[in-house]
## 1
Amino acid sequence: DIQMTQSPSSLSASVGDRVTITCRASQSISRSLNWYQQKPGKAPKLLIYAASSLQSGVPSRFSGGASGTDFTLTISSLQPEDFATYYCQQSYSTLGTFGQGTKVEIK
Amino acid sequence: EVQLVQSGAEVKKPGESLKISCKGSGYSFTSHWIAWVRQMPGKGLEWMGIIYPGDSDTRYSPSFQGQVTISADKSISTAYLQWSSLKASDTAMYYCARRGQNVAYSLDYWGQGTLVTVSS
């Protein structure tokens, strides 16, 4: 199984802050890494696919990066609607696995 | 418009059986894998398994192999997740999601979720 280790598990930030979340794969997954946003009581929503491609309709303040088995999700200027939980997910294998999630809270 | 519509919330007793559904519309149902994802109360997302409705090829994550059965009826564009004997630990929200055909095969559309509560 491919394991995904996401950090931090939670963070507190203010509106306007730059926020970065990291995800590490247990083996090479090429760029088969996706990021999802989940708000309370809602289904997850795809933000970024293939490590750095923005899903249609997602604001440009979201961006993704990759270096080897390390991946990042960056929010350049946090907005009130961005307070949510974020998950990475590898799709290198047919059985995708998720990271543990990062909850972004208001400071 | 692509949509995945899941069946409604269920309340069951331990030992009972259950089958929940996920109906796809607005796209070729037989051409996209459908994944099932579990979210236990207050916890993260867990990949349970995936099915290709075109030929019913099904894969299970090791933690869920033998615990659930995933199936699909392509004639009515519907995927299913079923249990033969529920346990209290099966209490969770269950999501179906479509595996897209972009370069990373991400889960691009999700159902609204089905809440399953198992309690005596």
## 2
Amino acid sequence: QKEVEQNSGPLSVPEGAIASLNCTYSDRGSQSFFWYRQYSGKSPELIMFIYSNGDKEDGRFTAQLNKASQYVSLLIRDSQPSDSATYLCAVNMEYSGAGSYQLTFGKGTKLSVIP
Amino acid sequence: DADVTQTPRNRITKTGKRIMLECSQTKGHDRMYWYRQDPGLGLRLIYYSFDVKDINKGEISDGYSVSRQAQAKFSLSLESAIPNQTALYFCATSSPPPTSPQYFGPGTRLTVL
């Protein structure tokens, strides 16, 4: 079964600290990985994507991918109270062979940044 | 204007009523999706459509039906609403994978009494 696993949290960090969010996935052939931020009662918003092993930085956000370990993470530097939200990891996984892919979401990690 | 819109944004209905949730997009994407989200259960896929003539069931399609009226429009119907269909419903769109993300509409909060 195709799965994306995240720690549900809540993860609490003080303002200004680095928040580290982790995600593991089951399909070794996955090629694209996404992080979404979801505020309570709102829709998921795409904040980062990564396709290659290593790090990708965008402002205060860094996505890290290790395909050998089937692990992707999101680091948020200088965390702000406005970063308090649920973060969803999503992975494009192959279903039924023949290049048929489906985006599979984890259940999300709730982040709380304490002022 | 928003790229993906959903109507209505909030709806309260009674058990047994038929309701329709509508989704429109201006992103030009072929693929459209309907999800429901319940606390602690994450996003669950109800139906998805790769183009106007291709509609597929997701993991929780029972009690729901869909219609793809055009490339830009995808509707979700609850034929006879029941209380456990109370949830937040999201429409999403994407280009073909494997590198494409999905983009979500603002959601519809549905309450079935």
